Amino acid sequence: MAIWNLLWLYILILYVSNGRMEASHKVYPQFQSLSAVNIRQLHHTAFHFQPPKNWINDPNGPMYYNGIYHIFYQYNPKGAVWGNIVWGHSISKDLINWKELEPAICPSKHFDIDGAWSGSTTILPSNKPIILYTGVDSNGIQTQNYAVPANLSDPYLRKWIKPGNNPLIDPENGVNATAFRDPSTAWWLNGRWRVLVGSERNSRGIAYLYRSRDFIHWTKAKHPFHSAPNTGMWECPDFYPVSLSSKEGLDPSYMGKHVKHVLKVSLDDARYDYYTLGTYLTNEDKYVPDNASVDGWAGLRYDYGNFYASKTFFDPAKRRRILWGWVNESDFTQDDVKKGWAGIQAIPRIVWLDTNQRQLKQWPVEELNTLRGENVKMSHQKLKKGHHIEIQGITAAQADIDVTFYIPSLDKAEEFNPTWEDAQRLCANKGSKVEGGVGPFGLLTLASKNLEEYTAVFFRVFKTSKKHVVLLCSDARSSSLENGIYKPSFAGFVDVDLADKKLSLRSLIDHSVVESFGGGGKTCITSRVYPTLAVLDNAHLYAFNKGDETIIVKNLNAWSMNKAKMN
To answer: In the record, which residues are listed under signal peptide (predicted)?
Structure first.
């Protein structure tokens, strides 16, 4: 690997010759000096990644390096809104407890003076990490740049430098120079590195492919790696292989026979993450989605709630692929800023291909279980129509609940109208208060004692002539008595076989966020909520049923969650 050592020396020479060490995009100038120092503690999370104050968004280039996990993230060190963006940097040995370091990248050069935006990390041969990121110049032109550790012997990689040959990739003629961003993790194939850059032209979402032999000189491929009409800007593209036969993660450069590939894009117009499963045609350097995988708004999503600008990385220590996502604020008001509601990151999840090979599955990383405290259990408990049972003995505002429901009979399931393609709209029309045949049943999280407030996470089962259709909802419309805040109902269909008449649900409750995993991780929904009554010790947790069919709580495990060490 001598060539890579020479490359590293070349990069450092370029940097030193430069003379000195380097220390969703709507700007709210009226709020830039407004700090979120006094975040309302009622809503500050206990085990989700969150800075002590100020705005964060996209997770940038998470990685595992020499025994330490690194998370970089878009961060405003000066205020509680988007702006003044730098690359925040925190480290961990377990993905749960984090220590904040100084920012890794700050705007300082002509090519990034108006923004050091999202990007990714890649581990080069000889175990050398490198960051690719989008810089924005004073004219709004977006270019792809790189940074390297100033001192590889520093176990925390505190300081990063920008060599003098930046930018590496400029927008060519025909490329939308103000919509050209978020380089992916690179992969190695046939003697060249490859990287994707997201873009948009005439409402067509595009992932451009660039190739390089040395990671310095890049050439744009003749044709886009993949694109789709009427999907708008593709932010934060992510491309990686998944095994057809194992939950183990794969290195991004793995090209074996028994794999599919995943292409994820964050649709700027929708503010949600969508992915397709497909085939990487290596001879043509093109990606072709499976026939059952749809690009755009009708496609598959990692998460059907507040979840955006995600990034995965391969963890070689435990042979797994880990997914990070930003719990984005879908609505934004001046009142939000004053309360310091400035974004968090979702719990890191492992991601793998479902055995049906039609979708991915996700589950919280196993390290989260180390925070579990007091445990209560429930089994073989009947839930008749209109009943709710409180789950006592845990801290309901800070909890982990894993439950399996049993449905004695599916005969009372409502007929499914084939026009009900939009799960979120269906949940809005048939929410937790609307009685049904089989369901709604599930959990009332962050609930006040008299149910003036609650966030309902529930199933509803429908039937067609050929199969049953399962809907999972996370309905926040009753989550808060406060007016003027965003309280949506989120939903997704769960592709499960109900032959055993069982449905599983796991929910992570953390004061102002509820992350739920239905059907063993087939459908995930994250909701950000702001209760006024159901806070701290005044929060309650219930299992409920409003369907005609009696539901059995077959097994329920609930734990109080301890607080993580956070920045």
So the answer is: 1-23
- Nearest-angstrom CA–CA distance, 473 and 49: 24
Q: Which residue has the tokens 């300081």?
A: 159
C-beta of residue 309 within 8 angstroms of C-beta of residue 58: yes
Global pTM reads 0.93
Helix (H) or strand (E) holding 426: helix 423-429
Residues 151, 128: Cα–Cα separation, whole Å: 11
- The CA dihedral of 271, 277, 278, 284, to the nearest 10 degrees, is 40
The domains spanning 55-366 and 373-561 adopt the same CATH topology: no
Residue whose C-alpha is closest to residue 94's, from 325, 314, 398, 365? 365
Q: Is 74 helix (H, G, I), strand (E, B) or coil?
A: strand
Backbone angles phi, psi at 224, to 5 degrees: -60, 150
Q: What is the CATH number of domain 55-366?
A: 2.115.10.20
CATH number for 373-561 (one of 3.40.50.10540, 2.102.10.10, 3.50.50.60, 2.60.120.560): it is 2.60.120.560
Q: Would you call 211 helix, strand, or coil by DSSP? A: strand
Domain residue ranges of the chain, discontinuous segments joined by +: 55-366, 373-561
Q: Digits of tens for pLDDT over the chain (567 positions)?
A: 455 554 554 444 444 444 332 335 655 555 555 554 444 578 889 999 998 788 899 999 899 999 999 999 999 998 888 888 999 999 999 999 999 999 999 999 999 999 999 999 999 999 999 999 999 999 999 999 999 999 999 999 999 999 999 999 999 999 999 999 999 999 999 999 999 999 999 999 999 999 999 999 999 999 999 999 999 999 999 999 999 999 999 999 999 889 999 999 999 999 999 999 999 999 999 999 999 899 999 999 999 999 999 999 999 999 999 999 999 865 444 444 545 556 799 999 999 999 999 999 999 999 999 999 999 999 999 999 999 999 999 999 999 999 999 999 999 999 999 999 999 999 999 999 999 999 999 999 999 999 999 999 999 999 999 999 999 999 999 999 999 888 999 999 999 999 999 999 999 999 999 999 999 999 999 999 999 999 999 999 999 999 999 999 999 999 999 999 998
Quickly list DSSP for 239-281: EEEEESS-S----TT---SSEEEEEEEEETTTTEEEEEEEEEE
Contact indicator for 272, 298 with CB cutoff of 8 Å: no
Catalytic residues, which ones? Answer: 58
